[in-house]
Structures are given as structure tokens and as C-alpha cells.
Amino acid sequence: MNRRNYRSFIIVVSYLMLLRIVLNFTVGISIFNFGMLFDLILTAFWIGAFAFFIKKPRNQRVYYIAVVVIASIFVIGDSIYYDFFDVISSRSSFGGVNRLAEGNTLEYNLQIPLAAYIVLPLLGGVIYLLVMKSERDIFRIKDFGIIALIFLLQIVLFLVWGSYNFDTRNEYYRSDAYLFETMYDRTLFSEKYGYYNYHILDFTRLKASIDEEEFYKDINAYFEDKTIHETNDFSDVYAGYNIISILGETLETRFIDPILTPNLYMMKNEGYSFDNYYTTVFQQGATCNSEFMSLTGLNAIASNDWINNVCDSYSENTFTYALPKQLESIGYNTYYFHSGYEWFYNRQVIVPQYGFETVKFQEDLYKQGYDDFDDKYDTQMLYFFDEYVNYDEPFFIDLLTYSMHGAYNQEEFFKYYDRVEEAHPGETLDGEIINYMAKLVEFDNMLGLILDELEENGQLDNTLFVIYPDHHPYMMTKETYFDYIDVELDSHEFMRQDLIIYATNMTGNIVSMTGSTLDIAPTILNLIDSSLNFNYFTGVDLLSNQDNYVLFSDLTITDGYNYLFLNQELVGNGNDLAILEVALEEKINELELQKKALIIDYFKKLKENQ
Fold this sequence. Notes:
Elements: H1 7-27, H2 34-52, H3 57-85, H4 93-102, H5 114-132, H6 145-163, H7 169-173, H8 176-182, H9 186-193, H10 195-204, H11 212-224, E1 242-248, H12 262-270, E2 272-278, H13 286-296, H14 310-313, H15 323-329, E3 333-338, H16 347-353, E4 358-360, H17 362-367, H18 382-388, E5 395-400, H19 417-423, H20 431-456, E6 463-469, H21 478-485, E7 496-502, E8 509-511, E9 515-516, H22 520-528, E10 550-551, E11 557-558, E12 563-564, E13 570-571, H23 577-599, H24 602-609
Parallel strand pairs: 1-5, 1-6, 2-8, 2-9, 3-4, 3-5
Antiparallel strand pairs: 2-7, 6-7, 10-11, 11-12, 12-13
């Protein structure tokens, strides 16, 4: 009878658990959680179960080595991914990695993470031990009896969580069942259920079947119950004005300065400045998701739930009531210009779905003979104006800029360092901060050129500007960024930015109504033509002075003063807890309905049924 022999098996399982500890340690996740136990049971059961059926020693060694190599790749990759996005990667993230490989990776300033320096020597040692062991691991089925029983109990527990009846929607949203079903928080999921368990389920589980008619009825009921948009003192004030909306890639409005960014400073101080405005980053694909929200007045949905971003997954959907489509219906020429690649985030497909008639990217400028075009320089976006804009008719121009994107070590912007020194004389600034400020100068110079262009064509006094960020400088070293803006690392305050709306006849107005990217489209529409359709926005007009709440992708909610976390922790005034609880339920329900609307292409069905 063969003697039991588990040496290689024990080495592999121990190494996987050590990898888990290395990842948690290097990204700052606690290692003291039940997920560690679940992972131990999961890896011990499945690795042993497959090894049991491999009879040849050589094949078993190859199997073990493949397991440790693949696990090491995931841990090193996740340490890099987490450094950028503060989240563990997913199956959907691989689409973004593939796109990154097709483009310019230099700007991402990818560096070898600490985890790699720890993992690679360990991996080499483990592979050596596995290769040197010539005999095969020998198991008996009863050896896995206890592990199999515990594993079965886990499965039963998951099923019980999924069938449990909850008294309130918030009780369900806070439950392990909702976390398990949606994976809305990958880090929390890995802490509770296991890191390896998360990745295995993410790659293997199938989408649930849906009832499209039921979804359609649910969404109809939501929109039918919505509060009707009411006109206010700002309604139609800028009727007939041209509109230029600018999504400033990685714009951080705390850096606006009279010397560094004189045009932005002027627009912020002489226009409408919204100081309770948030960039609710739905990673990953934050720029595309912010774009989607600002143009449609609809929520992006958490990327943890089956998709990497809205643009890739729902690019062919219909968006009947998007801002450009409604403006086009009242006679506006609609233009979309982006200095980046047309294929990035599948923009050449989704942008026309918003209602833009003229959609142009860097590829189009090259075709027009602009061989010197460089997407890093926002000032060169004026080429789009020269080639495509008709100033004789009302227009809506949407610009997606690029210069402030990372990495923050690019030599092309050294030429602006004198401006940075002039704005901050004698200050000792981190190199990344200086480089970011120089990039911001390029963005501001673009604004100056646009103002000059409009004045030359007699349109400056008849144009409304809307300027807003897509996300924070996530490619900057976190400690450097948060220290400079004086915000705690675990706070949502870094997402508080300024939305700027400017026209030459404004004299300065600070608007403190709480809002987010979601609310831009209805706000612009109210200023231009309040008779258009507001009913199919989930965002609201930020000049209506009504109560409004912002839901973040981690399902924290704020009224602009207090923060209620999903775990019921409240930062702020306890007297507002009951109101925030109601708002939280409504906002998450709204997010779930938005998900359904995207899945069934709701607006296409609505059009077909009208």
C-alpha cells in the first residue's frame, strides 16, 4: 500500500496563503479576516482534488508549478492594479489591460511593485523545491473528508444568505447576500469570502437570467413616479446660447490659481461655481463613466458587476434623451472632439449614440494633414475648431481633454516650470505636484485660445462654458496627492471638486446645492431650454435648490455635509441619520434600476413601444 505523501501539496497551499498575506500587506488590506480561512479551505480542497487524479509525478509537478506561477501573476498584477484604482482586478479588467497594451503604456509610468520583489524570490524557491521532489504526492479520498465537509458548509451558508428574507431594502443592501451577489466591493468580498474565491467566482459564474418585460415595467414605474422638473430663476436664462462643455481629464480644481491658471480662475470666480459637487468615480473606466453620466444624466453602474465600464459594455445602446440629442432636436449642431484614440473605450461607437452629429478624434486630424499633432497638448485641440466648427449656427461642443493625464514625470511640460515657480515662489513642492501643475498650465492655455477663437468669430458673448473633472489624479503617488490637498486617505472628500459654469455676463455666484457628474445634463438643459424632457434623467438640475444626495461607487452616501457608509457608520450630524437612511435606499434602488435599464437597452424598447 502506498504511503501518504503530501509534501508538495503542503508547499503549494502554504505558498498561496503566503501570497495572500503579501498582497494584503503591500496594498494595506487587513490579513485578520475570515477570507483567509475560506481561502485555506478552498485552495486545500481544489488543489488536492485535482492533484489526486494526476497519476504521473512529472505531470503533477507541472500542475503544481502552473498553480503557483498563475497565483503569483495575479498577486503581482493586483498589487499594481490596486495601486492605481484602490480595488482588486476582475475578469472585466482584462479588457482594459488589452486596450492598454495596444496604446501607449509609457504614460502610465508602470513600475515594479513591492509585491514583486517579495514574491519572485519566493516563487523561485518554491519552484526549485517542487522540481527537486521526484516522487508523486499520494492522497486518499478520506484525507479530504473534513475539508470537503467544511467546504460544503460554506456552500450551504451561501445558499441560506441568498434565500434569507430581509425586512428593509437597506438591510438587504448591507447583507452578505448582496455583497456576494453583486461583488460591489471586491476588497470587502475578498476579506469576507477569500481572495482566491473571489477570482474563481469572478471568472466562472454565469450571469443570472433576466425577465426583460419585468425589468421594463420596473423602470417605467420608476420614471412615472419621478418628481417633475420645475422651472426656477435660472430656467432659459441662456436660451439660444452656444455651449462648450469640457471634461478636463484628471482636472483637480483645488489647484486653480490666478497665476498658474488665470483663465480657469477667472471662470470660476466670475461664473457659477458649485462647491458641493462630487466626481463619483465608478472605476474602472472612470473617464468614460464620467462622460456617460454628464451627457445622459444617468448613473454609470459599479464596474464590479460584470462590466469594466459603460462604454465597452453598452456602446450600442440607445440614449434618446441624452443632452446632445435633445439639443440637436432644437437646432443645435453637435460636436464631440477628443485628442485621444477613437477605439479607446469604444468611443467611436458610443459617442454617436449620445446624439453627436460630428465626432472626431486624433485619427481624423492626421487624415486632415496635421502630422505634428500631439495628444498630450490640449492647445492643439484648436485644430478641431479650425476644421469642423460652423460658427453661423448654434452649436454644442463637447471636449474631452488629455494633458493632465499621468504620468507626472513627463519632460514635455518642463517648459511651464517657470509658471509653477511664479505661482508658488520659494515653496518646496514634490516633483509630481510640479509636473501636474505644468500640465494644468497647458489645459488653461487651451481655454485662453478657445476664448480668443470665439471672440474672433463673434461668439464669445453668446457662449456658455461648462467645465468639470472626470476623476482625481489617481496616477499620482497617493500620499503625495492627499498630503498636498490636505485630505485623509480614507475620506471621500477628495472627490469634492468644483463644477464651473461660465458666460461673459456672469458676475460670480457660488452654488452650494449638492450634486455630482450625474446632474450636469439637466442643469445645462434648464439653462438653455426648460421645455425639453427632464423626466428620463436620474440626475437633477443643480440650480433648483432642492434636496439632493450623492451615491459613491462603494455605496456611501452624502448630502454634502454628512457621510453615511453602507456599514452604518455616520460621519457628521447624527440627527440627519434617518434622512440619509431613506436617501440611501432610494439611491441604491435607483442604481439597480439603472443597471436594468442598460441591460435591456431600455430607451430602445421605450421608443419601440411609443
